[in-house]
Write a structure and sequence with these properties.
The protein is mainly α. The chain has helices spanning about 5-20, 30-35, 40-50, 75-85, 85-90, 110-125, 130-140, and strands at about 55-60, 65. The protein has a two-stranded antiparallel sheet. α1 (about 5-20) crosses α7.
Length: about 140
């Protein structure tokens, strides 16, 4: 559904939201260690999010990242669009080119289309703040 890269981006944003103090810069090594994601790979992901104004990036020995927006403003769809694009929400499940048309569609389209729309709505509505809240208040230890 979404790439591992996108999953890492979402997890990193949640981690930063859990740190809550928006002026606090967290080093890439600390984030990568906490989330068990290789530092160079995570660094590239974080730079893409910073370039797209989701994160704030500070260079130098005391550098790192923080959220550039309120966690409430960052929707999952924002991250998915930046990292993966929106093809998943607009393409045929089995790769039939004409599937987007109402007249011509693949055999699974009538079953899959409503599910895809529900997923799209979930990603458009779900924000980083609510996910961080859920983790913090319900002690989801599996996150980290």
């Amino acid at each position: 559904m979404i790439s591992n890269t996108c999953k890492y981006a979402i997890r990193a944003c949640i981690y930063l939201a859990l740190e809550e103090n928006r002026n606090k810069i967290i080093g890439i090594k600390d984030i990568s260690k906490a989330l068990n994601i290789p530092t160079p790979f995570l660094g590239k992901i974080m730079q893409v999010l910073a370039k797209n104004k989701i994160l704030r990036s500070v260079k130098g020995p005391n550098g790192g990242f923080s959220l550039a927006l309120s966690p409430k403003q960052i929707k999952l769809m924002d991250i998915v669009n930046i990292i993966d694009g929106n093809d998943f929400f607009n393409s045929c499940l089995i790769g039939v080119a004409a599937c987007s048309s109402e007249e011509e569609h693949c055999p699974i389209h009538p079953l899959y289309s409503p599910i895809r729309e529900q997923l799209k709505k979930l990603f458009e509505e779900q924000d980083i703040e609510s996910l961080a809240y859920e983790i913090h208040h319900h002690a989801h230890k599996v996150f980290i």
